[in-house]
Each structure stands twice: as structure tokens, then as C-alpha cells.
Amino acid sequence: MYKKIIVPVDCGQLDKGEKILRKASALLDAGGEIVMLAVVEDMPGYLAIDLPVDIVENAIKDAKAKLVELKEKTGIAARVEIRNGAPAREIIAAAQEHGSDLVIIASHVPDFGNYFIGATADRVVRHCKCSVLVDR
Predict the structure, then answer these.
(1) Which pLDDT does position 83 carry in this prediction?
(2) What is the pLDDT of residues 43-70, one digit of tens each?
(3) Integer CA distances (angstroms), 23 to 42, 53, 104, in order
(4) Thinking of the domain 2-135, which architecture would CATH place it in?
(5) pTM (2 decimals)?
(6) Residue 130 class from Cβ within 10 Å (0-12 exposed, 13-18 middle, 19+ buried)?
(7) Where do the structural domains in the chain lie, given as residue ranges?
(8) Residue 107: CB partners within 8 Å, gap ≥ 6?
(9) DSSP character string of 34-55
């Protein structure tokens, strides 16, 4: 059905990541490609002063290790990509850069904060140029 699928994974919720990775595998055309994506958020300047210099670098290494482990656990062929920045913006940028025709993103039950600032899945759905499947 789809030739290129972006699967953003929250490294704090690998069970949801595994679920959407399996869905992506089921929806992928023969010869298609899955890109598993993790986004490490930037540290605000006022916090960066009090944190170790290599905290973002370590977070990137940790995210890559977790995605590789998830890929090996499931046995699903996928490219692993790590980006740094705002999650929704980076997911949308990855979808455009890769020419993807589907993004499968996990969602959660919204809390009070989501009503003021919005959730990543909401932003991706509103602004992504390709189809988006939200898994609840």
C-alpha cells in the first residue's frame, strides 16, 4: 500500500513504538522502506547552563541504541534516523525530505497541558503533507 513510511518513536514509550512499527510493516509495499525516527529535543538555554555539556549527545546515542534494539527485537527492516529539535517539526521535515507517503504516529490520552500547547500528533496531523495514521 505504501512505499515509504515514517515511524516516529518516543524512546520513553517503546511498547507503542513496537506496535506502530509492526503496523508499518503490515502496510508496506514490497520493496518499500520504513524510516524509524527518534527526535531528541533541544535544551532551553536557561537549563543548558546547569546541565552537562554532552547531555544532548548522550541522549542521541541512547535513542539510536534503543531504536536499533527495537529493530532487532521485531526483525523488521528499517532505517534508523535520529534528529534534534522540536518533535513535530522534525517529523514533518523527515516526511518531506524522504518523500514519504505515510506517517504512523502513536498518540496518548491528552492531558491538561495538551489543550494549551497541543500534542505532537496533533501538530503532525495538521501540518504534514502526506497521510498520517494516528494509533491510539
Answers:
(1) 97
(2) 766 666 666 778 888 999 999 999 999 9
(3) 29, 38, 8
(4) 3-Layer(aba) Sandwich (3.40)
(5) 0.89
(6) middle
(7) 2-135
(8) 119, 121, 134, 135, 136
(9) EEEEEEEPPPPHHHHTTS-TTH
- What is the distance, to the nearest Å, from the Cα of residue 80 to the centroid of all Cα atoms in its chain? 10
- Which triple of cell numbers denotes residue 73? 527485537
Q: How confident is the model at residue 119 (pLDDT cuts 50, 70, 90)?
A: confident
- Using CB atoms within 10 Å of the CB of residue 89, give its burial: 0 to 12 exposed, 13 to 18 middle, 19+ buried: middle
Burial 26-62 (b: 16+ CB within 10 A, else e): eebeeebbbbbbbbbeeeeeeeeeeeeeeebeebbee
93: which DSSP letter?
A: H
